[in-house]
Amino acid sequence: MREILFDVTRLFVRGSRFSPTGIDRVVLAYARWLLARSDVSLQPVVTVAGRTLAVPRAVLAEIVEGADLFSTAARGGAGADAAWRALADALNADPGVAEPLRAKPVLLQLPDRVSWHANVLARSLWRLRPARPTPGAVYLNVSHTGLDHPRVLERLADAGARIVVMVHDLIPIAFPEYCRPSARARHIRRMDQVLGFAALVIANSATTAGDLEAYAGRLGRTPPPIEVAPLGLSADFLSPPPPLRTRRPYFVCVGTLEARKNLAVLLALWRRLAEHMGPAAPGLVLVGRRGWENESVLDHLQRSEVVTRLVQEVSDLPDPLLAALISGASALLSPSLAEGYDLPVAEALSLGTPVIASDIPAHRELAAAATLLDPFDGPAWLGAIEAATGATTRRPPVAGPRWEDHFAALEKALLGPV
């Protein structure tokens, strides 16, 4: 039986955010897979101040169960809460009649998050202990979290563990201008650990694998073996749900509101759309939390008259409701300037929703069925959005990758003989 030390630090840090981001979904998918396997001796671990500590398996199971209950409630109709009804009402109302939806301020979310973390810590803190892998055990980290601490992987390797990590992208190194000021140095430390100690790297795309190989080559280093395994989709995106029906056509853009998502250009386009189309201008729904380096986006959201009439901003949608929102959209828009793997694009294609996306390597690999445009070609984007507004014809759904296929591709490399 293979012992796996599965790093769940990200879930402990972000578990109070019940609508997971892309990387959160990956960690949850791996947790479900590992918890269900009888041939694995699973030891969840967290990385604290450069030390790897074991946490109770039962606590991880409860976190996963909580995330699953959140989606199950929405799938059964109980998730159509006030926020969802407000979004549907906003998209059905005449523009400018009501206040636009905007993200809930972080300060208002703190009481619930503090309560969640206090509950988890109360049940697990006193049981934390240093993780001591047996020789041949696998240390598995699929989130980047904790890898920037010096000597984390070195200590595990010295103890005889086989290091397996997933690399999602090298964006902070290649495009530091789109990230927090400290992100580049942190990601360099992560990749230094990966290149020095990983026995296997899981890449979410051939684009990411190529970026890692090129980065290693520039440093004169040999990368570890790399397995390319596209991320799977949750069941809610594998068959079209009943779409959200609205009076006015709308578009959707999903992702954290950060500089590399190119949202300032998208919002400027919406002003031009209003000028071109007048009362027939479509709505736009931004789905995601507010990130960093996004001052121009916030300026549009707070002060642009056109944006306040036509653009809604929501977060914390469970997968069933997000799938319904994407299914009802005229198209999903992804004008991003850099991606390792764009999960919302894969989700939209799987639902049969048209995709208009930036012409970047990750989208060329992932989204051959999408309309790919130069992310800075405003007139081309304007024309594509106008053409898609209210269009009734749709392309057939593109079979999306399944988590079962992802894990089947990795099973031998991850769990087979060393």
List keywords for this structure.
418 residues; alpha/beta; Rossmann fold; 2 domains; three-stranded parallel beta sheet; 14 strands; globular
Description:
It is built from 17 helices and 14 strands. The chain has helices spanning 9-14, 22-36, 57-75, 82-92, 106-124, 152-158, 171-174, 183-197, 206-218, 263-277, 295-303, 305-310, 319-327, 343-351, 361-366, 378-388, 403-415, and strands at 2-7, 40-48, 51-54, 129-130, 138-141, 162-167, 200-203, 226-228, 250-254, 283-287, 311-314, 332-334, 355-358, 371-373. The strands form 3 sheets. The protein has an 8-stranded mixed sheet with strand order 4-3-2-1-5-6-7-8, with helices on both faces. The protein has a 3-stranded parallel sheet with strand order 9-10-11. Strands 12-13-14 form a 3-stranded parallel sheet, with helices on both faces. Strand 5 (138-141), helix 6 (152-158) and strand 6 (162-167) form a beta-alpha-beta unit. Helix 2 crosses helix 3 and helix 10 packs across helix 16 (378-388). The radius of gyration is 22 Å and the shape is globular.
